[in-house]
Amino acid sequence: YTGWEGDIAPRESLGDEDLLASDLSQMRRFVAGLDTPGASPEFQRADIAPRGSLGDAQLLAGDLSQSRRYVAGLDPLTGAGGPAAPAGPEP
Questions:
Q1: How far apart are CA 72 and CA 35, in angstroms?
Q2: Which whole-number Å values give the CA distances from 76 to 7, 53, 69, in the listed order?
Q3: pTM higher than the cut 0.85
């Protein structure tokens, strides 16, 4: 996938190449457990923190915070990368 980290809305088109308030709203739904991201591109773009590793295979408040930074223009947009699926259960 060649889109941006954090570009997760609209879901039906797998993002729109912009980071807007709608991406923040969808990220909140993922972090709260109200929606489950699809595997591969959608999860990969939603899992954006820590920024240095492009994600840690978990969707947590840090991902929402980083998404806010992208939408506000505080961090330059980053190409999608990092884990494409959630981490397995803790041993």
A1: 24
A2: 13, 15, 9
A3: yes
Contact 37, 8 (CB under 8 A): yes
What's the one-letter identity of residue 64?
Answer: L
- In angstroms, the CA 32 to CA 53 distance is 22
Q: What is the pLDDT of residues 29-62, one digit of tens each?
A: 999 999 999 888 999 999 999 999 999 999 999 9
- CA distances 26 to 22, 57, 58, 89, Å, are 6, 17, 15, 24
Mean pLDDT, residues 73-78: 96
